[in-house]
Please model this.
Amino acid sequence: MPHSIKFFLLITLLFLAVNAGYSQGCCSGGTPLSGNLDIAANPSKTLSVRLIYDNNKLQDLLVQTKELEDKTRTRLSNSVLLRLNYALNKRIALTTLFSYSNQIENVDFLNFSSSSQGVGLGDIVFFVQYNFINSNKTGLSTALGIKAPTGKIDRINEETNLLLPPDLQPGTGALDYLFSSQYARKNIADKNFDLHAGLTYRLTAPAERFNNQQIYEFGNEFQFFTGLSKSFYIKKSILAPQLTLRYRHTDFDKTNEIKTANTGGHWTYLSLSSSYTHSSKVSFFIQGSFPLYRNLDGVQLTTSYRITTSVSYSFSFKENLEVIDAF
Model:
């Protein structure tokens, strides 16, 4: 790419950063709600509490599939999520997902530097899960839900006193609809090898900004994943390393029903992870995700790597209910 074009792109990004209150976001950051809609297969009358920490480093600047040798703009997105899942019975479970995000974006170009930060409680997700198959070897489940617009969308840049772009806000301001489906098969090819696959879809809606003078809508989002895990039994504990391939696609965003430049695209990630479960109650999880292929619309800052960790604890109410029923 000629140096003149690179220089033009850098000046354009600089202009967008300075005028963050009026420009639209072009990053694949934000609170990772869709990526945490995996379906849990918990025993009946069990409450599972999961605390998730997500660290997303965005430092790769791409023009479609071409990565530019430019590090003048970086973003660090830290999110904390609390997920509550309660299995009513063998078929039906209810899940709620709370979120908190802290996103910091820095621009350092020539003699100019700026920093923007979007912090706060994010949107809340509610969904109902139905298990079509829930046996010892096979699981097939689906879930329907909504994302309620509880997160703030009016955070400002303290340096410029202008409204932050939509993708730096803790919330989206819109009521979205969610669909998720998941398949799992245990003991394939070899004993203790498990196959897992699933997909999620988020149907977005528009939200009003700038005192109802602008309508912004994030693009619909589709994700698909598939992978293998191997279980190792250590007394009453299970160690399960996993290899997962994940594909993500988002449509372009819209501003006042017009396509927003530098939004939307295709991402493919490779995830290496491991879970450790002790006595079927406590579980720990860590995952690192790295990009394999990206084809983005226009110029976008996107993920260099992502680290996710979580800890879960399950409470069983079945024994207590059996005691009550006995009286």
